From TrEMBL, chain A:
<dbReference type="InterPro" id="IPR016155">
    <property type="entry name" value="Mopterin_synth/thiamin_S_b"/>
</dbReference>
<keyword id="KW-0175">Coiled coil</keyword>
<dbReference type="InterPro" id="IPR012675">
    <property type="entry name" value="Beta-grasp_dom_sf"/>
</dbReference>
<dbReference type="InterPro" id="IPR003749">
    <property type="entry name" value="ThiS/MoaD-like"/>
</dbReference>
<feature type="coiled-coil region">
    <location>
        <begin position="24"/>
        <end position="51"/>
    </location>
</feature>
<protein>
    <submittedName>
        <fullName>Molybdopterin synthase subunit MoaD</fullName>
    </submittedName>
</protein>
<dbReference type="Pfam" id="PF02597">
    <property type="entry name" value="ThiS"/>
</dbReference>
Automatic annotation (TrEMBL), chain B:
<dbReference type="InterPro" id="IPR036563">
    <property type="entry name" value="MoaE_sf"/>
</dbReference>
<dbReference type="Pfam" id="PF02391">
    <property type="entry name" value="MoaE"/>
</dbReference>
<comment type="pathway">
    <text>Cofactor biosynthesis; molybdopterin biosynthesis.</text>
</comment>
<keyword id="KW-0501">Molybdenum cofactor biosynthesis</keyword>
<comment type="function">
    <text>Converts molybdopterin precursor Z into molybdopterin. This requires the incorporation of two sulfur atoms into precursor Z to generate a dithiolene group. The sulfur is provided by MoaD.</text>
</comment>
<dbReference type="GO" id="GO:0030366">
    <property type="term" value="F:molybdopterin synthase activity"/>
</dbReference>
<dbReference type="InterPro" id="IPR003448">
    <property type="entry name" value="Mopterin_biosynth_MoaE"/>
</dbReference>
<dbReference type="GO" id="GO:0006777">
    <property type="term" value="P:Mo-molybdopterin cofactor biosynthetic process"/>
</dbReference>
<comment type="subunit">
    <text>Heterotetramer of 2 MoaD subunits and 2 MoaE subunits. Also stable as homodimer. The enzyme changes between these two forms during catalysis.</text>
</comment>
Length: 81, 145
């Protein structure tokens, strides 16, 4: 599964993507796995209320299931326009 | 419908003229252009986006607008990459038989592009650089639709 990071999430983790092998059932479980990796992940995911997630390029919730998902992206609230 | 996500500058006037031509069923065209404002000595704005999702999200927003209002056509151009004060960041145009639809659809598109299209702005100025935080009022603006 590809895990992508954007904006300050990318900066805090220090790279734009990871390729992850995971049995996580939900986004929240995947986040816990990532936080356990290293301090920089822990820092990036410290406050989930400051983050948004997209599954296969569609906005989703942190309790959404990961079954069949190929691409997960984490980023701060969007500031377009 | 035309959706363009690009780093290149665009000519808003030429885009608007091209968009307005060739519609015999349209009585109203509304356009909005967003420019880089030099707040607090801002010297550059950098816009990051999520290639793939960006085009998909904007298309979905434009299709939603077409479903809600009677529209002849929709145009959305949004840039990414480094931008200088005064440069155009994006533009939206709507064409409709009547002006109310064109105005409302353009406002709807702007409200949704602000907080539902995957763009992130970083401001560079005299005190360094920082990501622009999303505003509560931008999220609240969606509730009126």
């Amino acid at each position: 599964m590809d895990v992508l990071y954007f904006a300050w999430v990318r900066e805090r983790i220090g790279q734009p993507r990871d390729v992850v092998e995971t049995q996580a059932a939900t986004v929240a479980e995947l986040v816990e796995e990532l936080k356990a990796r290293e301090e920089r992940y822990e820092a990036a995911f410290a406050d989930l209320s400051a983050l948004r997630v997209a599954l296969d390029q569609e906005l989703a919730d942190f309790d959404a299931p990961l079954a069949g998902v190929r691409e997960v992206a984490f980023f701060p609230p969007m500031t377009g326009g | 419908m035309r959706i363009a996500v690009q780093s290149a500058a665009f000519d808003a006037g030429a885009e608007l003229n091209a968009f307005s031509e060739g519609h015999s069923d349209v009585g109203a065209v509304v356009s909005f252009s967003g420019l880089v404002r030099a707040d607090g000595g801002l010297s550059r704005l950098e816009i990051e986006h999520y290639p793939g999702m960006t085009e998909r999200a904007i298309t979905k927003i434009a299709e939603e607008a077409q479903g809600r209002w009677s529209l002849g056509d929709v145009l959305v151009i949004h840039r990414h990459g480094p931008l200088e004060p005064g440069e155009a960041i994006m533009m939206v145009a709507t064409a409709a038989p009547h002006r109310k639809d064109a105005f409302e659809a353009a406002e709807f598109l702007m409200d949704y592009l602000k907080s539902r299209a995957p763009f992130w702005k970083k401001e560079l100025g005299p005190d360094g650089s920082d990501w622009v935080a999303a505003k509560d009022e931008d999220e609240a603006a969606l509730t009126r639709w």
